[in-house]
Design a protein that fits this description.
By secondary structure, this protein is an alpha+beta fold. It has ten helices and 15 strands. Helix 1 packs across helix 2, helix 1 packs across helix 3 and helix 1 packs across helix 4.
Amino acid sequence: MTLPAKAAAAPMIRENITDLIAFAAVAEERSFTRAAARLNVSQSALSHTIKGLEQRLGLRLLTRTTRSVAPTLEGEDLLATLNPCFERIENRLQALNDTLDEPTGTVRIVAVEYAIESILWPKLSPMLKKHPGVNVELVMEYEYTDLAQSRCDAGVRYGDQVAEGMIAMRIGPDERMICVGSPTYFSACKEPQEPSELTDHACINLRLSNHGALYAWEFEDADGNEINVKVKGQATFNTINSVLRAAIDGHGLACVPERLAKPHLDSGALMTCLDDYCPSFPGFHLYYPSRQRSSSAFQVVLDALREPN
């Protein structure tokens, strides 16, 4: 018996949609390995899926080398068509979800370790207990991450570092980077009186992962002129908490957020220097694309993080 046209077409439509989702993942990730992890399937199964889709379409959608994967011209054209469609479907599903009384969904936020520990988690932890249907994934990254590429809904940066075209919402107070050292260090070394004298001191460096350079310590004189000093020392880290720990252990001077160092200043484990050269600057802001749809989960996250005026 011949099935009706609609019934016969249904399995093919489902198959194509599944395969198109797989193709979009590979094209966006530019990697079968990352796409397979994203889709929670094996690389061999994913490769088989893409080959089947290309055979049915009679088109080469991806170019593959031993080192990279990239869409062909036909693949780029198909991806440009698929992404808006997938986005509309996702938005519609989210709109249906938003009709529920209890917010549900997952929100991914990328931020540096200090922001996660001092701002995000303390504010989001109580919210998660109130809303069991909301999931939050906090991604620790020191690079200026592209939200679309990292599949994150929002990111956190200092207020003066938010890119144009993004909506920015303050989530923390103004910050101040200060120069600190242990009493042991200051008992052995004369306290610097000007930032330029830091070149004669052992300093603990922070390596910036976004371009691999060492962080140049930033100061400001009485007239508001910026002073950047490249320091040197035996220890270098790529997380600020490690820098702080090394300063407490007496390995040299460190430039760290004042709020992070405060408990150790209060206890006497650390002392400050060059205070007159350490200005305040805009604190952490949550940023997200202006086109970001405010889902129920995203909205409760915003409400939890928003800094009171």
